[in-house]
Amino acid sequence: MGTSKQGGFTYSAGAAIAKAAGMGGLRMLVRPYGGSGVYVPAVDKRELKFALANALETRYAVTGTGTYEGRQQPNVRVVSVMLPLRVAIFTRKGSPIKTIGDLRGKRVPGVFGAARTLKVLMDGELANAGMSYNDVKIVKAAGIIGNANDLAAGMIPASLPPSPVPSAAAYPMRSTGLMVLPVSLSWIAVAMSSKS
User: Structural domains in the chain?
Assistant: First the structure.
């Protein structure tokens, strides 16, 4: 089963699923990768039988759109929806950044490597505040866990981990705490997020 690196949410979820499958007599092994952009194509090529991916990435893979533009993965199928994966921009508790708009001109992760869906999600979060990547200083993302480390160290003011936050990503934040930057629920802001 394809998952994220050890310490990431899909790795932990995959380990739990493999354990439960084993109790039912089905042998499953967790195979960690650098991101779903690597292991979803492995499912399409039948190099893996299962993988954990979010709904947005799976839709893009099956339709050949978005982050999979021109690279349709016709052999990918959804077996089950496990849980809602909520996304928000987090900052350190006590940070002067209180809104997404406060990120204007600040360093924000924006080059995500194998986890390309994160850029799409960040596009939507920034658009909700009437912003785009043109309004922030883009830095290379170190992955969800690396971003949490950079956030804890004060190297970036905010990060975009999914919720639930992977245990390895949450660990560096125990000393500082986290705060979620709110999104606007106005119809205009929601429409801007949906377009991005």
Answer: 2-68 (no CATH), 86-195 (3.40.190.10)
